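Sync notes, pocket subgroup
Present: LS, DG
LS reminded everyone that the earlier model was apo-only. Rerun requested with magnesium ion included. Inputs:
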Amino acid sequence: MIEIFCDFDGTLTDKDTLVVLLDRYASANWYAIEEKALSGDVDERESLREELALITAPDDDLMETLEQEIHPADGLDQLIALIREKEWPMQVLSGGLIRFSGELWRNWGYGEFPFFANDHRRDSQERIQVIPSPTPRLRERCNHCKRWHLEAARRRGSQVVYIGDGLTDFCPAEAADRRYAKGNLLKYLQEQELEAIPYENLQQVATHLRRNPP
Ligand SMILES: [Mg+2]
């Protein structure tokens, strides 16, 4: 069996939901924290916690902004059409927040595909506090251990396809049989000399998968 796993932000969307929210609502320079995460000085658990604590605007405002700013990535329709036609199981693995990103996903009409992400609550000063995904963690680096889902699929004997673009995709992509990558993920896989198929839009992924299933 073939199973498809996709990152959400920047992979299935045109823009990153967390970047949009932080650019608009963070009370201080969040990018200084992001740079520490990208250079490996702090892990994703710490950086996401610090970044989101800079946001105090209410959830309704954040969701309204995301509904205006975030759109399906180019070619998502074609990719979903192929996956539905082949009846391949697909799961979305997000490093973002389920109450925002999961709702966008359902509103776009794709709610049949499970969506896994982190949750959040507010502290006494209305700052966002990250509640890590309940997914078991293989390492103590990320709030949501995306790799766990891929390892579980491999144990089921599936051929695992991963599609992603960023930092939280490095670890799960290593565990995939087939990798479609762009952005920082593509750079990372090339540095690690791991095979990756570069892509610019999801139509290209759909076309390649149709012609060359793993
Ligand atoms: Mg991403």
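DG: The chain is about 45% helix and 20% strand.
LS: The longest helix spans residues 59-69.
Action: DG to write up.
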